[in-house]
Every structure is written in C-alpha cells, then in structure tokens.
Amino acid sequence: MAMAEGEHRDALMEAIRVEGEGHRALLAGDAETAADRLRAAAAAYRRSWELAPPRSFGRVIGMLKALVIAGDDARAEAAYVREQVSEDDASPPAWYALAIAALVEDDDALARRAADGMRAAGVEPFLRTAAAIDALARGDAGAYADAEAAIVADFERRSEHLTGVPIADTALMLERFAERRGLAAHPSSALLPAM
C-alpha cells in the first residue's frame, strides 16, 4: 500500500513537472516541444490516477486538459474518463472532468449538466469555468467571452501556479474548444501564448 501511495505521488509530481515544461515551451512559441511534453504529462497523470486513491479527479482533469491544449484528438481519453467517473455520485471536481470529456465529444447536454454540477462547489474559479463551459455548450459567444476574460483575469492575479509556470491553462484549454466551435474570444495576456 505504501509503495502504491509513493508511486501515485511520484507519477503526479512527474506529471506536474513535465506539464510545466510544456507550458514553458508554449509561452516560448515552441509548439512542437510543448505538444510532446503535454502528451507525456497526460500519460503521467493517467498513471497517477490509476494508482491513486478513489476520487482523485484532479489527475483525470490534468490528463484531458494537457491533451486538449496539445491539440490532440482526446476522444479515447474522454471515453475513458466517462467510464471512470460516475454521474451518480459526482463531486464538483468529478463534474469538471466530465465537462471536459463532454466538450471533447461534443456532448453539449452532458457539458451543461456538468457545468451545473461544478457550480455546486460555490468556489469562484469553478463558477467562472462552469460559466464558460455552459456558454460553449449553448453556443453563446458573448457569455463565453465574458467568462473567458474573467478566467484570464483570475490567473493574472494569482501569485502561484500549479506547475510553477505563470500560464492561464484553463483559459487556453477552453479557447481550444471555442476555436473549434467558431466562438473563440482571442484573449490577450502575458499568461497566454500567441494564438
């Protein structure tokens, strides 16, 4: 048991470290290196999820987010998340994982249900992200742009970032979905790569 605990923590730390390398490459304009590092981070997040205690949903969120930002087709991983995460007992973080999977799969009904589930947390970052997801699922460009701007502003106010790299990765992931749907807001920030 202690060995598995150490292994899942090691995999999580590896995922965060490699994701940070991807973020640095993105901000430097090196899309190829960024995509490679983000794919490696996604694999480490999945490894960590498979070793971690139940309900460690941040790991599957990290996996999907890294692949979406890398520009990959993440449908297989989205299907995996939907197998792993039950709607029946979903917490707000679980709903977030399901929301990303739903956007990958263009399942707007699930994305909207998941956004509602995320709102139950009552936590500002979740509320902002839920608003953006709901707007994407409804095709509301104005509401999406407002939510995206609020997300970017939140990241700009932060003194610490998970990977140690100041980047608005949630906003970047959502913008990838928005581009595909013709709803891109094109926010400008030092915490976002040129898009």
What would you say this structure looks like, in words?
The longest helix has 26 residues, at about 1-25. The chain is mostly helical. The protein has nine helices and no strands. The model has no long low-confidence stretch (mean pLDDT about 95).
Average pLDDT rating: 94
The percent range for strand residues is under 5%
Low-pLDDT sequence parts: none
What is the 3D form?
A: globular
Distance between the termini: 45 Å
Largest sheet composition: none
Brief descriptors of the model:
mainly alpha, 195 residues, globular, 0% strand
Question: How are the secondary structure elements laid out?
Answer:
Layout: H1 2-27, H2 31-51, H3 58-70, H4 75-84, H5 92-104, H6 108-119, H7 124-138, H8 141-157, H9 169-180
Helix pairs in contact: 1-2, 2-3, 3-5, 3-9, 4-5, 5-6, 5-7, 6-7, 7-8, 7-9, 8-9
Summarize, please:
With 195 residues, this protein is an all-alpha fold. The longest helix has 26 residues. The radius of gyration is 16 Å and the shape is globular.
